[in-house]
Amino acid sequence: MPGIKFNPAQPNTYWDVKVKSEIANTGLSTESELAFSYFDPDARDGFGDAEDRSMKLGVSGSQGPFKYGTRYRAVGKDFLARTHKEDKNLDKDQDQWEVWSSWWSGRFGIRAAAVTKQNNLDDEPDEPRIREQFAQTTLTYQWSDWPNIGYSFSYGNGTNETTYEPDGYRPIKGPMQSLDSSLYYSSDSWYASINSYRIDTEDNISNRGYELTGHSVSASYYPSANFNISPFVGIDGASYDEDNSRSQNRSLSVSLRRAFPKRRTALKGQISYYDGRNDTWGLDYDGVYADAGMTWTWDKDKPNNRRLGLYVTYNRYRDRIYDGGDVDDVTAWIVFRHGQKRRSWSDRSDLNRYFDPYSD
């Protein structure tokens, strides 16, 4: 039975259409989605341009414990999802085609996939286009059904190469390998995960490559639908054969949300610390970013259209090597919504076109 879902979630800012169907007596189902976001950092384009578009097409099927499918996904570089959780999980300015199959028995599962990725969807003349083709196998073991505790390990092997190089950019072509692991826990009020990854590449043209590594711990505590707090700790590194350099980046953040349904008020905020270093490149910096906001809805029957919000952000950046690179920036703005129009007053009014971190 085919189904169509139209979702004008944020009038004049977001639009999507989803179509799902099942093919009778085959075990196959199809899914497609086309979405556009309007407010983005590039004021030159308009609603419906490729930079603001997300497209997904997929077919899947199952036979007992065995599942299989294929999926195509393309996301423009300026596309903004309806929520931050969705948005941060998107691979932007990239299209991906995947053929996959999985099998699950008891507490053990295995998934195999063949993937092709390519970036620079908008054919920017000053950016390279890199294509990755690889096969990936993921093993998962689940210790308990509830609370859900499990471990997954993935291995990928393939190639990456540039299919377009702007002036001054060296071509790349060579093998790549990736390792990913995750230990996770979820229950009625908790979610936590420990993640690690490693990517090794070689360049057959220059006989040089690079290695990327990362480790992170994240959690979320949500005792009710009206409160959650989410801490995060991460460290990433990169080693480059070309100049024998190594970069390291660390980050620490905490986000908080509290809603008061009876008062039709919501509070949100986050604070994060980050730093980075590469002695060969002359990089050594740290910074703090924080934002906080409060929204009040005066019409409970139309919460998305009649809302008043007060938001404040603070950004501090310190360059430990060069003078004159420090930044201290405080921004405050008010967003007033009535009907399908948004009116705002801000010392940086352009920010309101594309950044509303507190709209769910």
Helix and strand topology:
Elements: E1 3-7, E2 14-23, E3 28-37, E4 53-63, E5 66-75, H1 84-88, E6 94-105, E7 108-119, E8 129-144, E9 148-164, E10 173-186, E11 190-203, E12 208-224, E13 227-240, E14 245-260, E15 265-278, E16 283-297, E17 307-319, E18 327-338, E19 341-346
Antiparallel strand pairs: 1-2, 2-3, 3-4, 4-5, 5-6, 6-7, 7-8, 8-9, 9-10, 10-11, 11-12, 12-13, 13-14, 14-15, 15-16, 16-17, 17-18, 18-19
Question: How would you characterize this protein structure?
Answer:
The chain is an all-beta fold and 360 residues long. It has one helix spanning 84-88; strands spanning 3-7, 14-23, 28-37, 53-63, 66-75, 94-105, 108-119, 129-144, 148-164, 173-186, 190-203, 208-224, 227-240, 245-260, 265-278, 283-297, 307-319, 327-338, 341-346. The chain has a 19-stranded antiparallel beta sheet, with no helix packed on it. Residues 1-12, 39-47 and 340-360 have low confidence and may be disordered.
Mean pLDDT: 79
Residue fraction in strands = over 45%
Total number of strands: 19
Structural class: mainly beta
Rounded to the nearest angstrom, the distance between the terminal CA atoms is 30 Å
Main beta sheet: strand number and arrangement?
A: 19 strands, antiparallel
Order of helices and strands: EEEEEHEEEEEEEEEEEEEE
The percentage helix is under 10%
Shape: globular
Low-confidence stretches: 1-12, 39-47, 340-360
What is the count of DSSP helices, taking H or I runs of 4+ residues?
A: 1
Q: Radius of gyration, rounded? A: 23 Å
